Inverse folding.
């Protein structure tokens, strides 16, 4: 069993912390404010855990694993913990949206210690330490020594800890799904809206743009990926909202750059046009300034 610090007990952080604690690992939460208890309403019932919480990096100590589960824009918040948590053999897994996990932590974590992880767990935070998990999903790391060690952490949990020899393709597949969430965010509608032809067409356009950029970045994405993305949205619970949508409704900062801005930035690098992403980013940014 491993000694694990989870930085950022939001929807994903709270879920993995509770499940790892139930599996017998030693888990500590790193948060700005105390969380008395984790309550996870999962597909097979409620899971509760009460791991200790550090609210000050000064009291933290080195651990075997650091799981960074903060929002992608909060690198400063995560970095504040790393000096105290990283010891001679510590590995750091980054469980965040987007495809730039390594770039975000360059200079903060030695490359051989960093494990980028793609998260596919539909989960919503409903209160401090309280999360609704709609489906147990997967956590995908690169197929190397560190990635395989990360996957083993979840062997006794209902989450699918896995590795991939082509992590880049997995990352861009997930980004193709996530980047489309901006359309539903803009119209303030849950996933069920994807069953409307006009909304489906918008999702398809966004997914096509993302896939084109992903291919330019070396991802092996099939020609029909946009159709798969629309089918994915239509297959989800109709009332489910993506995290960008939830953050906008709650007046929280948005992960626009990690989910959509990256498509535009990398598209510019490769000469791939991304007009739909540009348009929707501007509109959602305008909405956010009014809240």
């Amino acid at each position: 069993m491993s000694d694990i610090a989870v930085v950022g007990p939001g929807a994903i952080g709270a879920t993995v912390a509770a499940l790892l604690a139930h599996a017998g690992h030693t888990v500590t939460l790193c948060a700005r404010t105390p969380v008395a208890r984790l309550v996870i309403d999962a597909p097979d019932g409620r899971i509760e855990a009460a791991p200790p919480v550090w609210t000050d990096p000064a009291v933290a100590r080195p651990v075997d694993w650091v799981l960074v589960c903060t929002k992608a824009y909060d690198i400063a918040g995560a970095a504040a913990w790393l000096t105290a948590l990283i010891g001679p053999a510590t590995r750091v897994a980054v469980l965040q949206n987007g495809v730039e996990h390594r770039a975000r932590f360059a200079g903060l974590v030695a490359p051989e210690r960093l494990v980028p992880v793609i998260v596919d767990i539909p989960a919503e935070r409903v209160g401090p330490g309280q999360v609704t998990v709609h489906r147990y999903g997967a956590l995908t790391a690169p197929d190397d020594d560190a990635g395989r060690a990360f996957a083993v952490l979840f062997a006794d949990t209902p989450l699918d800890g896995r590795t991939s020899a082509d992590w880049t393709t997995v990352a861009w597949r997930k980004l193709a799904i996530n980047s489309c969430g901006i359309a539903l965010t803009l119209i303030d509608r849950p996933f069920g809206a994807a069953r409307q032809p006009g909304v489906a067409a918008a999702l398809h356009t966004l997914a096509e743009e993302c896939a084109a950029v992903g291919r330019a970045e070396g991802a092996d994405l099939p020609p029909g990926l946009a159709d798969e993305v629309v089918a994915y949205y239509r297959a989800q619970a109709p009332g489910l909202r993506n995290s960008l949508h939830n953050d906008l409704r709650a007046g929280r900062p948005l992960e626009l750059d990690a989910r959509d801005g990256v498509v535009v930035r990398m598209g510019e690098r490769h000469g791939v046009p991304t007009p739909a992403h540009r348009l929707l980013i501007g509109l959602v940014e305008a909405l956010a300034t009014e809240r």
DSSP finds ten helices and twelve strands in the chain.
